[in-house]
Write the structure tokens for this entry.
Amino acid sequence: PQLLAAEIAERRRAEAVADGLYRRVPLPLHGLDPAGRLLTVSDRWLEVFGYDSRREVIGRPMRDFLSPHGAAKFATLWPRVRQGEVVEGEVEMLHRSGRVIDMLVVARPELDAKGRFMRSIAALVDVSARKRAEDGLRAVQKMEVFGQLAGGIAHDMNNVLQTVVSGTRVLAAQAGDPEMVRRLAGLMGEAAERGMAIGRRLLSFARPGELRASHADIAAILEELRGMLSDMLGSRIQVRVAETPAPGEVGVFVDRQQLETVLLNLAVNARDAMPQGGEITLSARRAAGPEGEPAVALGVADQGTGMEAGVLARAREPFFTTKPRGKGTGLGLALAQSFADQSGGQLAIDSAPGQGTRVTLTLPLAAP
């Protein structure tokens, strides 16, 4: 009995030392019970999120400390932790004041001797500054895409205005011919609607606001992108959509603005690789993700010059570009790779001289 009591006392001392170290470690740490409630937090966790004591947070559900977007992301990660998987992801958490803090969370489950889940331990890293920097780079990239498309936009809008102006002149001369008036009014109306459609697409693409992930329908995005590119890339470029899923059949949980910017930039790169014109093919098909999970593979393929091995090896490097000065910043593929990584996906580039280029962005499927 004395030996057993000594062992119990020694174990308690060891647990007290471990608990003390856990609480004082200079990182935000927290532990969750099987129901997703806070079991423990480190001193640094309290400091980062603006709380004075553990009594204010212990026992509360994790969702109390998450933004709506963070709660949605947590709902996708937590079941994997419960199943015994070590997971990593970026989650929006809330300071006591309500301020959003972007956190990179790495969570590890602790299992009992029979492999049953007991608790999870998570380490947090504040990535808010990095997110702000990436937002700035995305804004630069969006402006670059606008610049690349400016010629096509101006040409198409000029065609619209020419139709309207010519129509008004003929109307003035043929005002007494009802049939001519009806026909010209129809042509002018179609031209005006085409101009409005271009304006709507530009406004949608350029809309400001914070990046937020939501369910995005792949078929709708590709069809809208096809219309935008057909308007803006010029008459020498044909845009085709292949292997498209039915509307509402395949969705992803991403920020739609980011995804559209990535795909639009890939299409602009494809256009630039075909100075004599050609066809750009947009596609989407079901695939397997990095861990074998259900995913969708989005493809942008061209019939252009292709890339040599040395260029292909550096294509994703930030600011690396083979375009002439003033024609590109070299951020497009780097930000596409960053978007893929943050979304739990992959970016693949297949290219060879004279064989064209195909860029494939693989993203996890959203839950139905």
